[in-house]
Design goal:
76% helix; 199 residues; 0% strand; globular
Length: 199
Amino acid sequence: MNIPNKLTITRMVGTPVFLALFLMRFDWHYFVSGWVFGAVAITDLLDGYIARKKGLVTNFGAFLDPIADKILTTAAFIGFLVIDRLNTLALVWALLLILVREFAVTSVRLMGAGKGVIISANIWGKLKTIMQYVSILVTIAALEFDTWKTGILQSQRLPDAVYDIPIIAAQVLIWIAVGLTIISGLIYIRDNRCLLSDK
């Protein structure tokens, strides 16, 4: 249980804290939950950096790190499904595609583990995770800004389109993340297809 692995577990423990804050209804709850999400997501960068620099890479960490990422991002997308301001129908399909990819990749990882092979994330997997983090943070920021329509900016009477643009941009980023998620999954399965063989 070295420092990188502790950071990975911190990311898993911090996930329900983020989701609880996101779903609560109090002033600036999106802002607060966004900061918590960002802080928890940063541990993903720190654990890998410290593990490589200090020579603390372990099979446990290589296996658990991507699982912690999936738990955090999936929690955020599930939270988005209860927000009426977002296109929840589109989000249902986005989440389904993400989960199919994650289950498929995790299955390949489990097959590898059964054969004594621990598969670390490749560059495509890392890009996918970063894009998911970015899309989630932008969505949370857009939701926070949207609350200003009936809050601190209510007296300014800004056009509704001013609040719609960030929401639309956030949903576009989510679908870009979905596309990258699918691509990275296909590459991952292709590169490790030998594990699907009984030989």
